[in-house]
Amino acid sequence: MNQYIGLDVSLKDTAISIRQGGRRVWRGKCPSDPKLLAQMIRKHAPHPKRVVFETGPLSTWFYHALTAEGLPAICIEARHAQKVLNETLNKTDANDADGLAQLAEANFYKVVRVKSFDSMLTRTLVAARNQLLGITTQLSNQIRGLMKTFGLIVPKGTGRVFDGNVRKLLDGNYSLAQILLPLLDAWRDIRKRAADLGHQLLAAARESEATKLLMTIPGVGAVTAVSYVAAIENPENFRTSRSVGAWLGLTTRRYQSGEVDYNSRISRRGDNHLRGLLYEAATVLLTRATTSIECSLRDWGLKLRERLGFKRAAVAVARKLAVIMHSMLKTGEVFNPSAGAPA
């Protein structure tokens, strides 16, 4: 008879619950190591039908490692599982594992597509570069703020201009220079590291045909294209292109009960970073894209801007971009600016 296993994963230990025939047959705890977990599961459940665990920091590693061990690993959506697990009176890891095993036995869960390690490597590169860029911004703002205290106003400028302006103002002020020059040196070094990661990102974009295809869209650069390809992976993961907008949280939420029926703001589910990049690309398309080339999507967005305002128009264009980009990956066709605007 088949066994159904629920895993409540944490950094140190993982609670295990095994069900068979509608009742729990064994539960215990094991160090959070997929190989040790696989040995424990084989020992107590020789015929595993489903091994269910929630999304989390270790879910990618657990999924691929357990799958490599030959176990039917399934990663499920944590938000959906928590609505069921919160019904238990006592919140413990063992009870959560029991609840996950019951969900596995009842086949009542939402499966989450786990990305490959290659895609996660690309996402890590983008995230690391963004983190370094954020640190440089914080350091430059910190330097500007500290210098204002002493009446030293740093003029506008970035990069070498900012570096030169700070050093010029600190010239002759030895005491303050001893404090701020280490910050300035750290700012310069971090910018260099961020530039190195940026070069890696551009190299990855040049090597990918899918990325180069998406970069034919006005406003879509290397970072947006690489992030989109890494998130989508295979266009066949989505049955229709329209579902990508909902997957990224760019569609409105609906509430209907009895006579009450209304649409609220966008759901903001899914990849926050990619959603922000698509919004940025939509903003560039609406404000900075050249007007010498006819673009139906841009014209549609500008008309929407007159009716609904800039932010709503940018969100709508971002959703259309997500749909168009998926269609381009599926068909292999470059962006056609003269194509009719989507309804």
TrEMBL record:
<dbReference type="InterPro" id="IPR002525">
    <property type="entry name" value="Transp_IS110-like_N"/>
</dbReference>
<keyword id="KW-0614">Plasmid</keyword>
<dbReference type="InterPro" id="IPR047650">
    <property type="entry name" value="Transpos_IS110"/>
</dbReference>
<dbReference type="InterPro" id="IPR003346">
    <property type="entry name" value="Transposase_20"/>
</dbReference>
<dbReference type="Pfam" id="PF02371">
    <property type="entry name" value="Transposase_20"/>
</dbReference>
<dbReference type="Pfam" id="PF01548">
    <property type="entry name" value="DEDD_Tnp_IS110"/>
</dbReference>
<protein>
    <submittedName>
        <fullName>IS110 family transposase</fullName>
    </submittedName>
</protein>
<feature type="domain" description="Transposase IS116/IS110/IS902 C-terminal">
    <location>
        <begin position="212"/>
        <end position="290"/>
    </location>
</feature>
<feature type="domain" description="Transposase IS110-like N-terminal">
    <location>
        <begin position="5"/>
        <end position="149"/>
    </location>
</feature>
